[in-house]
Amino acid sequence: WAAGFPVLAPAPLVAQRLLVASCFAMSGNISALLTKDIVSAYAIPVVFVFALSMFRWRFFFDATYMDPMMWLSAEGIAIPFAILSFLLLTAISLLLTTWEVRNYV
Q1: pTM, entire model
Q2: Which of 12, 21, 82, 103 counts the highest number of beta carbons within 10 A?
Q3: Reduced to 3 states, what is the DSSP secondary structure of residue 6?
């Protein structure tokens, strides 16, 4: 809609995908700040997704909220877990970014 084109996707579907993408962006930001390496911003979220899905399918069968693919569905606890993850990751990212800026400015 911002570019003048009609959006055919429902708003909750788009909002949910933006929420999950924001979680991965925040985890990339946190990892880049902690390791002081730009490559970590790309690699750690991929490793995070792979590790969570492997832990879920190998060890924690009943913990459906651990699988990032379930975050994109509207089943059960997926949306509240994604919102809680987003808020937690945003708070950690904000604290680390503020700390790094104060140390280098």
Answers
A1: 0.74
A2: 82
A3: coil
